Amino acid sequence: MRSWLTDIQWCPGCGDFLIIMALKNAFKELEIASHDRVVVSGVGCSGKASQYVDGYAAETLHGRAVPFATGVKLANPDLTVVIMWGDGDGYGIGMGHFIHACRKNLDMVYLVFDNENYALTTGQASPMTPIGAKTKTTPEGNTILPFEPLKLAQDAGCSFAKVGYSNDFKWLKELIKEAIEHPGFSLINIIQDCPSFKRW
Question: Quick one: which H or E segment has residue 69?
Answer without folding.
Answer: helix 65-75
